[in-house]
Amino acid sequence: MKKSWKAVCPLAAVIFLAASGSYPEVKDTGPDPKPDARGARLEQSLAGNGPVRHKVESSQAVLAYLRHPGRATLKAALETCLSSRKNIPNDLFNDFLIAFCHHEQGDSAGEERTLSRYPIELKNTYWYVFYENRSELADALYFLPAVLCKRLRESGSARRFLPPGSKCPSFGGPMTREEYRSGNRTVERLVCPRCDGMLRLYDETFTGDILFRVKNRNPMLPVLRQVAHDLSDKFGSDGAGGVSKLLSVFDVKEGQVIADIGSGIGYLTFRLADRVGPKGKVYAEDIDDNALKVIRYCVKKGGIGNIEPVLGSPTDIKIPPDTLDMAVMSRVYRDILLYLDDTPEARESFLDSFFAGIHKALKKDGVLVFSEGMDPALGLSSGQMFQALGKRHFRLIADRSNYRGLILLFGKAEAQGL
């Protein structure tokens, strides 16, 4: 497992004073016109990690309202979220917070307008997080800034977004760099004392497993992390059109049986289900039952019949043999590598078992689709993945990688090997 966090710092939250009186009017004219999203986000990131900072400001303003409900704190929360929208337009997480503020004001039209651009499963996800699990929301928002900082520090773009001398995107404090051995490689890790300290306190009751998101004390924190980081980035940059193109690159066809390995709360799952249609099926596999609860909720509420959530284990996806036309691993493998034991033997043993389960679940002509950001330091390049999966009885049948990252299609190798 990864090394324990090295510092514990006091926890702090933004507190607004509550006041009485009628609800004040806060002007919301709807989403801003869509800018050049990729260039704008890159510029903001390089200029101080703007997207994370604005998400933190919005989330902490809503946290202040949850802890001190009142007209003044609600007004401050909505004003903060609307201000953030100017800097992070079309951001799923910030829009969820805006919709929540509208709902709390009794403005159902504003809530619906804010969510109107999103598909039904994301609207259901919003309801699940903010109302079905409202009692867990304040604690999750409290720790969210530390999780967002950690997620950014561990991303493949960390060296670009966080050059030497960078400050914490959530709280502005100093960050340092350290090197550690991972297998046969030397890997650089960014350390943020304040956020790491918060996460250490959060994990005091963590009983442990391969990945961070297993057995968390607050079930909404890993869900909020996916909404705030993973889904905001994916939906904001790609939109529905980008996902459709991606699935075309994957060669997803109607009627197929597909597993979304490491599905999380279902960003790709629902789009895969749309593509395979009622005659097909999608297994939403994850080791975190909190994430699968979101999918189950959205499936039930939406009356969706071709998605089956599957609670796997770190080394067993628990899908029957010879079942799958395709297994999709999208932005999952990097997380696995980051949280594996550092010893080469343990790492190789884990990966052997993990990929053996996928190999067994695929049909004879089944395909493993591997989609991930490039990071040669972690073994994430076309050549390195060819070698890693080649020795685990997969053969490369297509390399459709582009400037955004790796897209590799593997078939099952013959019994005698490659």
Structure in words:
The longest helix has 31 residues, at 220-250. α4 runs antiparallel to α5. The chain contains 15 helices and nine strands. The chain is α/β, with parallel strands linked by helices. It has two domains: 37-205, no CATH class; 251-412, Vaccinia Virus protein VP39 (Rossmann fold).
DSSP strand tally: 9
Order of helices and strands: HHHHHHHHEEHHEHEHEEHHEHEE
Please count the helical segments: 15
| Strand-residue proportion | 5-15%
| Overall pLDDT confidence | 82
- The poorly predicted ranges are 1-25, 31-48, 205-215
- Please give the alpha-carbon distance between the first and last residues: 33 Å
Number of domains: 2
Oligomer: single chain
Q: What global shape is seen?
A: globular
Major beta sheet, specifics?
7 strands, mixed
Structural class of the helices, strands and pairings? Answer: alpha/beta
CA-based gyration radius: 22 Å
Strands in their spatial order, largest beta sheet = 5-4-3-6-7-9-8
The helix content is 40-55%
